[in-house]
Amino acid sequence: MLPEVASLDDEQLDRVEEAAGALRAIESSGSDGARRLLRHLARRQLIESIATLEPLDAPNTPLLPARRRFLADQYRERRQTVEAVLRHLDARLVMVGAGHLDDLVGSDTPTVFHAMLESADAAAVHSNAGLIRMTEVSFADAIATFTPPQAEMCPSLLAEVVARANAGPRRGDHPIELASWLVVCMILVHPFVDGNGRVARCLFQLVHSAGLPTFDWVSMEQWAADRSSYIAVLAGVASASAGGWYPDRIDVAPFLDFAVARFAAGVDLHQRRTEWCDRAWDAPMLGALGELERFAALIVAVDRSVSRAELATSIGHEYTSEVISTLSHRGLVSWSARGLQPTDALAELRGRPAS
User: Fold this and answer.
1) 354/306 Cα distance (integer angstroms)
2) pLDDT tens-digit map of 236-258
3) What Rg do the C-alpha atoms of the chain give, in angstroms?
């Protein structure tokens, strides 16, 4: 037995549809180069947020946030595992859209996500990557006080979660209703020793993106920016199952409300970043550059510091040396111990459109 899927009220539905329409408009407007820059920033924020869910400047997310360098050493591998999951997730979206797969959430999708996410074991938890837990867990002294179901129930409950998720479209569930429900179920069933939150966020990303005109670039960053609310809402939802597994007592509606609000806020921030990218792309100081050099210069401007390998991943290894040489010759980038950094002139470009 599982909690019921919560339904959007009319006001929430209007907010979601308005935000989805704005997201569609963003993707279909502006130059290809500016949209490529926007996706670079959005992708970085998405990966960092799924990997760690640590806020940069809660509750106000900067327009052009710096990379999370303070997480680089411990969580580099964790971010790489999230990148791998997102590639798998994107491939699944494409294959379902093309009719090659019947179900959006495969019977093994949660365990595949977990195996990939926990393969690095950055926190040295030894969480049996890709395997459902065999031991009992309780969170009586944790931030969220609740009791997950017994370990022997987890395989059947996880199968029930997958089946209900795939039945959602036929039952008329809105994608954000279903995606929010999945997060609550994965957190409270707690089928894995560790990593349930990251698996839940990836499942939300999969199911919500499938129902949008474009990929959901915005929700996860907002969850990280408002991490205290994320935890508080989930703790409130989970408290109904304190002392035992009581799914009929669990109300998913508060988390659905959180997801709706964060999605709408994320689209608003995405729109403002779009405007910045449009202006920055057309900045006079970059006018003599080709599209590849311009893209590389703006990556350095946005990220603050970029290694040669990171830049090569973004623009292509065969072009990296020539692009770096051009940008250095024009006084736009310089080398430091941390890699390529913007010169004062390029850093000013980052500040002007954002003001």
Assistant:
1) 21
2) 999 888 778 889 999 999 999 99
3) 21
